[in-house]
């Protein structure tokens, strides 16, 4: 039996990784291959029976997994940032959540004949969308930047809000199911334990991080261990209060001043990817296919209410007073796929409610999975065509992601922004990010290859990457990561390999792509030129001012960087021998080129003055010697 459990855990790990890879390769939400894998392993082929294999360990595994998922989601709920993402996002995660919850609750009560308590719980479970489902869809659809930003941030913010709402409703149902207690008294006690203990431990954990009471290498593991310990303690004090405790704990930690939790979020997301993948395969394998089919027309009618009534009503109500066009609202109305959080939380609640003997608990999981399957499959297959029909696609992605927010990158970004080219700077250095923010340049602080970046870094409208950083060890990782995402021909890097020892040499295929702005251009060279007063300047190359005239004015030291032609951005990766007219050239002008331009201007001015004097003298009439003046 032990060998069977060990083998099955190993198989689950391999399958979860394979499903994540399939989702990444096909640019689909990973939930689709995970769902198919779980259904095949469970009801389809009867290879995986989680209840038989894990036995009494199944509930603790799911319970701890859901606790980690809710805590990780709560860490992203920073109240100050919600308003910063626009009025529409704020409306959707507040008023929109209530509208969706009310519509789904009412439809569930009348269509599925659920009691109001269970209808409220189901409605709360399926109000969440989630970034793990939305982000892959946005990458393949590529809608306008504004719409992509709304959908992405709605998914990020509503994840913990919906989970907290579901936890509160579940707490009420769990208390009301026990006839031996007074409902209000027990519910108040449970809320007091959950909110009080969560707020206290969240604050104490924040102090531990702020005062560096844990060494750096223990911080992530320490936070995870403390969180799981608090979850267990909370459940021991008051049964079923643990999920509320860890959710509140994460929210408090996310909103404390003066602490940096970016490393914790990145660690939790890395852990959550594997945890969610394994958990979802297990949950899908437990799904009773007969129960799913037995939902009948009522289940399909409820799915129709979720997709065609609740979501459009929420979007159009929340869009009142915003600048969104009608087509924008119709597109947002179609984009609300449900995700893994709904599946995980509903499965846990269903197990607990079945133990308590609550009527209808056995239908919660099949119904949630029906909503997940319907929204993800239908919207994944149709959203791209819908976006094109509504004319809300972003079109060709001319924007740049620049890794490295140095002085050079910031100056280049400012010039490109003035030409309506989207630019985002990413860097691990907070000082560089801070200076870029002061210049109103969009930024991402952190590692652009992290799971956090995949959810939070806005890649809408960005089609190429420039690696312009001094981080020799990280540059190749960033390059390879975005070659897979954008394509090999869309990633450019500087030749920073000067003087590198043989043991630190990179592969020939990688080195061959280090030709950004020319094969002899390195980060050190750019930094040196900028420190000596080099400028980044835009110049129109026309019939009257050709590229030869440009070279005559600025000399060979001028370094062409990019040029814009007919609204399209082109990047130099070699020598610029001859450029046609009708382009806008953006180049780096060292101090020598600026001095030469001044001398050239003075020379031209002097020649013009001499020519004017000559023309003036030739045009004056000759005076007769006999004429008296």
UniProtKB/TrEMBL annotation:
SUPFAM superfamilies: NAD(P)-binding Rossmann-fold domains. Residues 14-386 form the Cation/H+ exchanger transmembrane domain. GO terms for molecular function: antiporter activity. GO terms for cellular component: plasma membrane. It comes from the Bacteria. Keywords: Antiport, Cell membrane, Ion transport, Membrane, Transmembrane, Transmembrane helix, Transport. This is Sodium/hydrogen exchanger family protein. The lineage of its organism: Bacteria, Pseudomonadati, Pseudomonadota, Gammaproteobacteria, Alteromonadales.
